[in-house]
Write a structure and sequence with these properties.
alpha/beta, 22% strand, Rossmann fold, single chain
């Protein structure tokens, strides 16, 4: 080999390897920092990284949304969350018995903590649902409208669970990752029209498969999450988006 070529080959081979090692070291160091699960600082770091993921890595959020242009004119004081129903996709074809209940609970919880609008209590929704025919994919639009009328809500959030696959394995050694998919609609009681729709579908990927999911990887403390964790993430993203698309007007005391 010519002497002049050796420095060139060294640079060509060494520089990429050094960069790769540096990036890997940084990832491992940042992951180690998040292991302080019981410290207030660790919790704040995880929360911040999760927010960055939702804001800056929207392409990896798993949420796709469609809303009508007039959705900002839909005035919302009070909403109802109708229990979502099973409608398995052609991939998994079946769902766990508690899948719909788990997603409904997450939607209700996220809607409540968001604030601004009033959320119809679960007991009131349950009482009203008992007066309606069992909800199916064929009649859920009609049931949602009727539920809204019975509980005097301005809009009703409802939908279907399409996939709810639990993780197989352990937190740091999963054989099969968790996956969740659901579809949601929001109907305006005044116009009787669906003004917002969303689809969420996400399966956790290894960092080697998706380097752009680094914030989620770190916020999950480099572990394989459960289906409930993914469902919670999807429901929060959906509620946040819905809230931003309609005209929420809180009911003031004494008004």
């Amino acid at each position: 080999m010519r002497p002049l070529l050796r420095p060139v080959l060294v640079r060509v081979l060494f520089v990429p390897a050094a960069l790769a090692i540096a990036m890997l070291s940084m990832v491992l160091w940042m992951a180690a920092c998040t292991q302080a699960e019981n410290s207030l600082f660790g919790d704040k770091v995880s929360s911040t990284l999760s927010n960055i993921s939702s804001a800056s890595f929207g392409g990896d959020s798993g949420l796709t949304v469609h809303s009508v242009r007039s959705s900002r004119q839909v005035i919302i004081h009070k909403i109802a969350v109708m229990p979502v129903i099973d409608d398995p996709d052609q991939v998994d074809k079946t769902l766990p018995e508690d899948a719909a209940g788990a997603v409904t609970a997450e939607l209700y919880a996220k809607a409540n903590i968001t604030g601004g609008w009033e959320v119809v209590p679960e007991d009131d929704v349950e009482d009203a649902m008992q007066q309606l025919p069992p909800t199916t994919p064929a009649n859920m639009d009609q049931n949602a409208l009727e539920l809204g009328r019975k509980v005097a809500a301005d809009g009703v959030l409802y939908g279907t669970v399409n996939r709810y696959r639990e993780r197989v394995g352990y937190e740091y050694a999963a054989q099969t990752p968790a996956a969740v998919a659901f579809s949601l609609d929001f109907v305006d009681e005044n116009s009787k029209q669906i003004v917002w729709s969303a689809k969420f579908a996400k399966e956790q990927k290894a960092l080697t498969e998706n380097i752009f999911d680094l914030p989620n990887f770190l916020s999950n403390k480099a572990r394989w999450v459960r289906a409930q964790d993914i469902a919670s993430e999807g429901c929060q993203a959906a509620i946040n988006n819905l809230y931003s698309r309609v005209n929420v007007q809180p009911i003031l005391q004494g008004k």
